[in-house]
Specification:
By secondary structure, the chain is mainly β. The protein has helices spanning about 1-20, 25-30, 390-400; strands at about 30-35, 45-50, 55, 60-65, 85-95, 105-120, 125-135, 145-150, 155-165, 170-175, 185-190, 195-205, 220-225, 235-240, 255-265, 275-285, 290-300, 305-310, 325-335, 335-345, 345-355, 360-365, 370, 375, 375-385.
């Protein structure tokens, strides 16, 4: 038994320290690392901004980077008189100290509803609707809630008779498409008695399920990293991403930014045009009624020099949200820029483009943002290296059962 015990201990330590191959070489090449376990980084010059607490990640926790958005639900927290916005019908009434964190909430009982007119919608536009709900405690209260959006001659019911627990407020979310330029949101107690609070309506099917104050814009999310942690002439960026837009068949209307290294803007470039020395962004479009999703790796240089490559995200085949490992390599050789994109340890594209080199120094770097677009998803294990990673190193990182922090524990 003692021999077996020591064998298990030995194998555990062996596996932990060999899970990532070539750890010494990776450690020497590592410029920046954030495990995304919380909203703090050991480096005080790194600023992590996100309005949401960390969520379960690939290893430990991950950070959710949301796009900047406005909550279109006027008086969605019921802090103003209901007569300004909401229309109650049936057995519905406003309650003090019964909402989220003892705020105001609306109680709906046995078919009662609360309706909110929406005068400004985009025909055919996607909207993410979320709200908090809790069943009124009671032995026989089998509470259920329904959500519907009426616009034009169409009524959509993305949530119908969904069970609500009395153990505390839970967040409910659905995505709907508007058929007209105006409509009405309606929440109904399909059965029993419920209390609703904190309603959000966000343009775009972004699976946003948190609450933003009514008609207020979210602050900018992202990981703000000092530019000395990256070399735009040669390097590598590695991360794990889990986002709804990576699902097969998911149609998004907003781009998703992953990394931006902004440079000083040349004098002949208009102020409203970003000048990024390096950028990673996903663009979504439609061609012949088929959704298109492409991930771009872009380097910009002097005199209009521009190197770019991309991969088709439609080839990712997961029907559910899962973690994907991405590695982006770039290096300049002579008048050529080499660009590579790896997904889950496999090289998806390797390109060589004419390039004259950068003539502007980087002045800002943000992870989870690029060109005005936010990641809109979860990110974990962000790392920047001073050289391109080899295929073996990329494969090792993708297949590892340990976080990258393991390389800092080597003696």
């Amino acid at each position: 038994m003692k021999l077996l015990f020591f064998q298990i201990v030995f194998l555990s330590f062996f596996w932990a320290f060999t899970a990532i191959a070539g750890t010494a070489e990776l450690k020497n090449a590592l410029l920046f690392y954030d495990d995304c376990d919380d909203r703090k980084n050991p480096d005080k010059n790194v600023r992590l901004r996100t309005g949401l607490p960390p969520e379960p990640g690939k290893f430990g926790n991950a950070l959710r980077i949301r796009r900047r958005m406005v909550n279109l639900a006027a008086n969605g927290d019921f802090e103003k008189p209901l007569s300004d916005n909401w229309i109650l019908s049936g057995n519905a009434k406003l309650l003090e100290n019964k909402g989220v964190k003892n705020g105001r909430g609306i109680m709906l009982r046995d078919g009662a509803s609360a309706a909110l007119p929406l005068p400004k919608l985009r025909p055919g536009g996607l909207y993410s609707i979320s709200f908090s709900a809790c069943a009124v405690p009671g032995k026989e209260n089998d509470a259920k809630v329904s959500l519907e959006l009426s616009s034009g001659t169409q009524t959509v019911k993305p949530l119908e008779k969904v069970s609500v627990s009395d153990s505390g407020f839970a967040r409910f979310q659905a995505a709907v498409k508007s058929a007209d330029d105006c409509g009405t949101l309606r929440l109904r107690a399909a059965k029993g008695a419920i209390i609703i609070d904190k309603i959000s309506i966000i343009a775009g099917d972004n699976r946003e399920d948190s609450f933003t104050p009514p008609l207020k814009m979210l602050s900018r999310d992202g990981i703000f990293v000092p530019v000395e942690y990256i070399d735009v002439k040669s390097g590598s960026f590695s991360c794990w991403i889990k986002a709804p837009w990576l699902r097969t068949g998911f149609e998004n209307t907003y781009p998703a930014g992953i990394l931006e290294v902004a440079a000083e803007r040349p004098e002949n470039v208009r102020k409203n045009i970003p000048h990024n020395a390096l950028g990673i962004i996903c663009w979504f479009s439609r061609k012949k009624n088929v959704p298109r999703k492409k991930m771009h790796l872009v380097a910009k240089g002097k005199s209009g020099s521009y190197a770019e490559t991309s991969i088709d995200l439609n080839k990712l085949t997961s029907d559910t949200e899962k973690w994907y490992h991405f590695v982006f390599n770039w290096w300049r050789k002579g008048r050529k820029m080499h660009l590579q994109i790896y997904v889950d340890g496999k090289l998806r594209i390797s390109a060589e483009r004419p390039f004259n080199g950068q003539d502007r120094s980087p002045k800002r770097m943000i992870i989870g943002f690029c060109g005005g677009a936010y990641l809109n998803g979860l990110i974990d294990e962000c790392a920047i290296f001073k050289r391109p990673l080899t295929a073996e190193e990329v494969k090792s990182l993708s297949e590892s059962n340990s976080p990258l922090s393991i390389i800092n524990k080597e003696n």
